[in-house]
Write a structure and sequence with these properties.
By secondary structure, the protein is an alpha/beta fold. Helices cover 33% and strands 17% of the residues. The protein has 4 domains: 152 residues, Four Helix Bundle (Hemerythrin (Met), subunit A) (Up-down Bundle), CATH 1.20.120; 237 residues, paralog of FGE (formylglycine-generating enzyme), CATH 3.90.1580.10; 95 residues, no CATH class; 176 residues, Vaccinia Virus protein VP39 (Rossmann fold). The protein is built from 18 helices and 24 strands. The strands form 7 sheets. Strands 12, 13, 14, 15, 16, 17, 23 and 24 form an 8-stranded mixed beta sheet that branches. A 4-stranded mixed beta sheet has the order 9-8-7-10. It is elongated, with a radius of gyration of 31 Å. Pathway: Amino-acid biosynthesis; ergothioneine biosynthesis. This is L-histidine N(Alpha)-methyltransferase. It comes from Knufia peltigerae. Keywords: Iron, Methyltransferase, Oxidoreductase, Transferase.
Length: 738
């Protein structure tokens, strides 16, 4: 079977080589399986490996060999056993019962394959196949490559269902690579050609569902440069994506509830490992997320403020790209992170769900004869996926290829790529920025880590819990003060203001402010995290239908171009609550206030919350709550570094410490090493002595004099002020100084 007869004419010799290669590849994929493994069928949608080997052989026997007079079938009864869905050829064994076929044996199926292979190669050698049979042979090879992928995904599901959860192959390599940036490729409105020329009229193979070529009008849109990663999908999970029906289609939510989905198929409940064809392995945060249903992919895209691309948008983007990527030929059999920048990973790694229902192109004509059942009759209730996966043979893929599955399907290597009507910038620091900041801070003589990295999804949840603790007074004190003085604030600010908030927060204070103002024109939260930004808008918009929502994804510590509302505003009001200003060193606070002065404009105002100096015991208690939530919040910074940049901090080896400095009027929060230890990051070793601190946060408490000094340096002055007395806390209305 490994040699090709030399006498075969050139075109048929090439076809014979391809036939030999594809058939051998199927046997190679099945080789790690025992006869018992090959009989496994874990669900109705899957098939045993033995059935895949037999069915693909039946296809060649039925559509190639049997087309010539005088051919004697291997076993006429097998026509019933290994037909799939070609009803015009006769009845077929029920799909859900394929796992009951202990006979014929695997050895008999191997003999069947060898017999059919010998017969096909002999016909090719003798030139005894007509044009129809040759076309059916080419189609059969494409068909077998489809089943090679199904063999892998079906056995993966079967082994996952086994309580022992054995690996398919223990020798599969583990790929470790960094995640490239996520950008957007913007496309203007245009008319594009979609599809492939009908085969076999034209030389290049294409399935009937890929033709004919036709023209499609695409709207202006932006497609993400790469598929969504595991880490990015986890942000959807951490934000409550599997608990919030707002993001889900009705049928998807019902299925999620019925089957208790909490994460992608094959992830463990701790979201740290995933089951692969190589067994259980650590979840690679940078690899494309996979094994998603259409419902999960669609919900995640909605949560991200985006959507799935249509199959036409996807094909138009892929048409100019080479068919390169991580395919089954690479023998990783699991998605890997792509390298570089720009549009990439359109082929291989994961099939990408699109928002397109699987249907016929205008002028669609199915394959002739019995093969007309191959694709056309499934054009109802299924969704299109594009691009191939890590289990797809490289030579099987092309830009026009249309795969399709029912929306609940999760056992394929299926993921997603975002698309939107406009590019969605997310300035959340990427791995390289976090790594650079961590290395720089830990290399400093006085160890430090930036407090801005507290706020991953878990950190944000923990901080919200902190605001409800008995000891943490700033949030409830500021809320009570706001409720008391909002009428005065509204009078001082005046009507028709455009509220610009620095950081989107939970929205509790913002909702109160907007409700109290007279005819507010617009609301613009400025936030580096797109997810947090969209969450704040989603929370506020329903209650404020007359307020234009104009979110901006940007770093508010720098001057920001604020969008102009449709209805002219009398002035801008910058809103900066929560005493967040106190988290900055004095020089950084002055720089931020100067940026605010530029953003608010000449007639603008700023409402700023500041925590005031008071009894140090009361202040220290607020940052050392009895429940330990603040300590967990602080230590989560180390957990984030371990997860996102590969450090190995032992969280039990550090403790939270927050002390108030009366000399500097600030809380100084440290993570203190409990023992002598080494931490490794980016090939470097950082040695810690017992008791050595890492400074992670300041929280300044102001007096009128200390805050006034900052304002003077920034060119701002106080218009009005309001204080809470017990505990002391202040709101200051500011304007540019003349």
């Amino acid at each position: 079977m490994d040699s090709v007869p030399a006498a075969v004419a050139a075109p048929q010799r090439d076809l014979a080589r391809h036939f030999t290669h594809v058939r051998a590849r199927s046997m190679q994929l099945a080789a790690p399986l025992s006869p018992e493994d090959a009989l496994l069928q874990s669900m109705a949608d899957a098939s045993p490996a033995k059935w895949h080997l037999a069915h693909t052989t039946w296809f060649f026997e039925r559509f190639v060999l049997a087309s010539r007079p005088g051919y004697t079938p291997w076993d006429p009864a097998w026509d019933y056993l290994f037909n799939s869905y070609y009803k015009s050829l006769g009845p077929a064994h029920a799909r859900p019962q394929r796992g009951l076929l202990s006979r014929p044996s695997l050895q008999q199926v191997h003999a069947y394959r060898q017999h059919v292979d010998e017969q096909v190669l002999a016909r090719l050698r003798d030139g005894d196949l007509g044009s129809d049979a040759l076309q059916h042979l080419q189609l059969g090879l494409q068909h077998e490559q489809q089943h090679q992928e199904l063999l892998l995904t079906d056995i993966k599901h079967a082994f996952w269902c086994n309580p022992l959860q054995p690996p398919y192959r223990e020798d599969l390599p583990i790929a470790v690579s960094a995640l490239g940036t996520q950008g957007w490729v913007e496309q203007g409105e245009r008319i594009v050609s979609i599809g492939a020329s009908a085969w076999p009229r034209y030389t290049a193979f294409a399935y009937d569902n890929e033709s004919p070529v036709h023209r499609v009008l695409l709207p202006a849109h932006a497609i993400a440069e790469r598929p969504l990663s595991n880490a990015e999908y986890r942000a959807f999970i951490d934000a409550g994506g599997y608990r919030d029906p707002r993001w889900w289609l009705s049928e998807g939510w019902a299925l999620r509830e019925a089957e208790q989905w909490q994460h992608p198929l094959y992830w463990d409940d701790d979201l740290l490992r995933e089951f692969t064809l190589g067994g259980w392995r650590e979840l690679d945060p940078h690899a494309p997320v996979c094994h998603l249903s259409y419902y999960e992919a669609d919900a995640c895209a909605r949560w991200a403020g985006a959507r799935l691309p249509t199959e036409f948008e996807w094909e138009a983007a892929a048409a100019s790209q080479p068919v390169e990527g991580h395919f089954a030929d690479d023998d990783h059999l699991h998605p890997m992170a792509g390298q570089g920048d720009g549009l990439r990973q359109l082929f291989g790694d994961v099939w990408e769900w699109t928002s397109s229902a699987y249907g016929a192109y205008p002028g669609f004509r199915p394959f002739a004869g019995n093969l007309g059942e191959y694709n056309g009759k499934f054009m109802c209730g299924q969704w299109v996926l594009r691009g191939g996966s890590c289990a797809t043979p490289r030579g099987h893929m092309r830009a026009s290829y249309r795969n399709f599955f029912m929306p609940p399907a999760r056992w394929q290597f299926s993921g997603l790529r975002l698309d939107a009507l406009q590019a969605l910038t997310d300035l959340t620091p990427g791995r390289q920025q976090i790594l650079a900041d961590a290395v720089a801070g830990l290399s400093h003589a006085s160890r430090q880590l930036p407090s801005k990295y507290f706020y991953d999804a878990r950190g944000s949840r923990l901080f919200e819990q902190i605001t409800h603790t008995r000891e943490y007074y700033p949030t409830r004190t500021e809320l009570a003060l706001l409720d008391r003085v909002l009428p005065e604030i509204a009078q001082a600010v005046g009507p028709r203001v455009h509220v610009v908030e620095l950081g989107s927060g939970s929205g509790r204070k913002t909702a109160r402010l907007l409700a109290a103002l007279q005819d507010p024109v617009a609301y613009t939260p400025i936030e580096i995290s797109r997810a947090a930004l969209l969450s704040s808008i989603d929370h506020l918009a329903p209650a404020l239908p007359d307020v234009e929502m104009l979110p901006v994804c940007a770093d508010f510590t720098r001057p920001v171009q604020v969008p102009a509302p449709e209805r002219p505003a009398a002035r801008r009001l910058l809103f900066f609550p929560g005493s967040t200003l106190g988290n900055f060193a004095d020089e950084d606070a002055i720089a931020l206030l100067r940026a605010m002065r530029q953003t608010m404009g000449g007639q603008g105002l700023a409402l700023v919350g500041i925590d005031l100096h008071k009894d140090p015991a009361l202040i220290e208690a607020a940052y050392n709550d009895a429940e330990g939530i603040t300590a967990a919040f602080t230590l989560n910074l180390l957990a984030r570094l371990n997860r996102e940049v590969g450090s190995d901090f032992d969280l039990d080896g550090f403790r939270h410490q927050a002390r108030y400095s009366t000399a500097r009027l600030r809380i100084e929060t440290d993570l203190v090493s409990q023992r002598e230890q080494d931490v490794h990051l980016d090939g470097r070793t950082f040695h810690f002595s017992a008791g050595e601190p890492i400074r992670v946060e300041y929280s300044h408490k102001y007096t009128d004099a200390s805050f006034g000094h900052l304002l003077q340096q920034a060119g701002l002055e106080v218009v009005a002020h309001w204080n809470a007395d017990n505990p002391a806390y202040g709101l200051r209305l500011l304007r540019p100084a003349p």
